[in-house]
Amino acid sequence: MVSLSDFQRIGVGLVGFGLFFLLFGILLYFDSVLLAFGNLLFLSGLVFIIGFRRTFTFFFQRPKLKGTSFFFGGLVVVLMRWPILGMLLEAYGFISLFKSFFPVVFGFLGSLANIPLLSQLLQKMGDSGSMV
């Protein structure tokens, strides 16, 4: 198991609450206050997990400046109470920032099929999807 420091544990909690508020804000028809609060919690949790310097260097690398500008621009637009446009800008920025990380995630999700109990569950779900 990965050992986390106290600051990283706090960061994981902040990221979790941030994602919860983002999801809850989307479910409540793009409530701008919940979305803004979720964004701020998510970013502060990221700073707690990987540190301020690493967060700064991640967001402000030259190849990632386009994604960073869209992500933070979307955050500003959400704070100006235009939540749908802001979330669209943030989503594009997020995809642009983390596009190199997606193959790792998909590879991990593909390896989940090798877990014995989970593979049986996936097979049962696949069998019950017949339309006949």
TrEMBL record:
One of its GO terms (cellular component) is trans-Golgi network. It comes from Ficedula albicollis. It is a multi-pass membrane protein. It is found in: Golgi apparatus membrane. Its main location: Golgi. Belongs to the GOT1 family. Keywords: Golgi apparatus, Membrane, Transmembrane, Transmembrane helix. It comes from the Eukaryota. PANTHER family: CGI-141-RELATED/LIPASE CONTAINING PROTEIN, VESICLE TRANSPORT PROTEIN GOT1A. May be involved in fusion of ER-derived transport vesicles with the Golgi complex. The chain crosses the membrane at residues 12-30, 36-56, 68-89, 101-122. GO terms for biological process: endoplasmic reticulum to Golgi vesicle-mediated transport; retrograde transport, endosome to Golgi. InterPro entries: Got1 (IPR045176), Vesicle_transpt_Got1/SFT2 (IPR007305). The keyword S-adenosyl-L-methionine does not apply. This is Golgi transport 1A.
